[in-house]
Design brief:
about 140 residues; globular; about 30% strand; alpha/beta; 3 helices; Rossmann fold
Length: about 140
């Protein structure tokens, strides 16, 4: 597990870019943290690191944004508005758990019952300063820090 403190949106994006450049098809990144803790900013960096050219936006209302990638797709999933197990089931997350997709799931703690045990946990938290974020990146194994 690695913990990094970023002090600006740009630093959060840069950390995400570095992390994203190491991801492999089939990986699932489970992001957790309070509102405004930088999850979407980190995802933007991940997508840049994977060479995604499309603008990356929060799928808060659409729930899932798909971005084409050389290996298939990057699925950016936001579970903030999911209110029940039934809604989660209807979303069909499992269809994205394949080797032609990388899943980036915000509010992943709402889907712990359906995530495979190998997901990569990332926890983001507000730091002391206005733009400071504390980002903890796990190696995998299904436990949110």
């Amino acid at each position: 597990m690695k913990t990094v403190v970023t002090r600006s949106m740009q630093e959060t994006t840069t950390l995400g870019r570095s992390f994203g450049s190491e991801l492999k098809p089939g990986e699932i990144v489970a992001l957790s943290g309070e509102l405004g803790s930088g999850k979407t900013q980190f995802v933007k960096g991940i997508c840049i690191g994977m060479g995604i050219q499309a603008p990356v936006t929060s799928p808060t209302f659409t729930l899932i944004n798909e971005y084409p990638a050389p290996f298939g797709i990057v699925a950016h999933i936001d579970l903030y508005r999911i209110g029940s197990d039934r809604e989660l089931q209807d979303l069909g997350l499992e269809s994205y758990f394949r080797d032609t997709c990388i899943c980036l799931i915000e509010w992943a703690e709402r889907a712990l019952g359906v995530l495979p045990p190998s997901f990569r946990p990332v926890k983001l938290a507000h730091g002391m300063g206005e733009n400071e974020r504390i980002i903890t990146i796990g190696e995998g194994g299904g436990i949110l820090p």
